[in-house]
Amino acid sequence: MKQKLINFSIVLMLLLALVLWTLLPWYLVLGIAALLALWLGLTRSGRLALAATRIGVASLPQRWGASSVIVVGIAGVVGVLVAMLAMGEGFKATLSSTGDTSSAIVLRGGSQAETNSVVMRDQVPLIGSLPGIAKNAEGRPLISPELSQVVNLPARGDGTDTNAQIRGVGELGWAVHPSVKLVEGRRFGAGLREIVVGAGAQSQFRGLEVGKPITLGNQQWTVVGKFKSGDAHDSELWTDAETLASTYNRSSYQSITVKTEGTAGFEQFKAAMAGDPRLKLDVETTRAYYAKQSGQLSTLINALGTVIGAIMAVGAVFGALNTMYAAVATRAREIATMRAIGFRGLPVVTAVMLETMLLALLGGLLGGLVAWLLFNNHSVSTLGSNFSQVVFQFKVTPELLWNGLKWALGIGLVGGLFPALRAARLPITVALREV
């Protein structure tokens, strides 16, 4: 019983060490690598460890089948981990790039998203009269009263009904959202059941080609244009706010998007809003609003990816343990011979550890490469905060690849430790008699 507790404690300590290792910043990892390189090159024990490592690496082709278990297992861990985290990174990047710091979104006080916000129509002129708002060439304030409606559209893949978002924008909506650029067809007309579709929405849903009719709210609409924005608006359908309101019997707006006179204008507008007792509304930059919308889902995806990666990492650790134990057993005479001619325990331990971590490094590089080739810029969609599909791309960043390599090296470190200690404690006389 006592031995089991000791073993369990050791396993927990190793897992804790693995977690701490993955949290180390890059400069500490490089510092540890530099210290190891100095020890290998400048000390007698280090040079012996390096020589023993060369012997072990030279014999790898003779046992490549067993060694490939480590490489493939760790590649799988790194590939899945990087892919999952790249999903969260892509979703976060898409929403975080939406909007800017010189435009504001106005919501009902206490609302966390457009879906639960209400802005009354009689408040729109009051908002438009506040200072800090940019004006067009005719001197009109650049504000866009907007509605967001979730509709069902057939998915392009299997035709099943999927949530999509149609946004009704005001007359000056195109000027308020300058990142939205028409790339095909024309803009929708005021008072007409016409829509323009984002490039992401067109790739995700059927029947959104320019010129085609589409049924929404028991009414027939016509797709008259296609736009690109490079952000979350790519997943939307746009139409005239008043037409959308009459179709779905909406008597109020959900948000007001305002183009302000730079950052200073935003602060002036926000202060004026807070100082008007008639307007119980919240104001924040569109950049901050959309970044906040990505927070919960991005955190969930990252947590899920880390948990899945950790579970797979445990399996990879046991795979590395079994493989390296087998390698130590098959090389018993070789290790005993090195011990007999003067290789002490520390160089032998280090040699086995370095060999394992080399295989782990190969697995990490392979897993990262596969994740980058298969998933980088791969387009997918998921439910956003308004319960409609948001189209985004996986982002396999250098930081994610670096984290994947750290996981790989950590698995190699833990997986090679016990076999290395066994090799160092192997009785020389017994090992020399083994065949």
From TrEMBL:
In what residue span(s) does the ABC3 transporter permease C-terminal domain sit?
307-427
Where's it found, cell-wise? Cell membrane
> What are the GO cellular component annotations?
plasma membrane
Top-rank taxon: Bacteria
Membrane topology listed for this record: Multi-pass membrane protein
Q: Name the Gene Ontology molecular function terms of this record.
A: transmembrane transporter activity
Residue ranges annotated as coiled coil are none
TM region(s), chain numbering: 5-21, 27-43, 64-87, 303-328, 348-375, 407-424
Q: Which UniProt keywords apply?
A: Cell membrane, Membrane, Transmembrane, Transmembrane helix
Record Pfam families: FtsX, MacB_PCD
- Residue intervals of the MacB-like periplasmic core domain: 69-273
Q: Which InterPro entries would you find in this protein's record? A: ABC3_permease_C, MacB_PCD, Macrolide_Exporter_MacB
For this entry, the protein name equals ABC transporter permease
Species of origin:
Pseudoxanthomonas composti
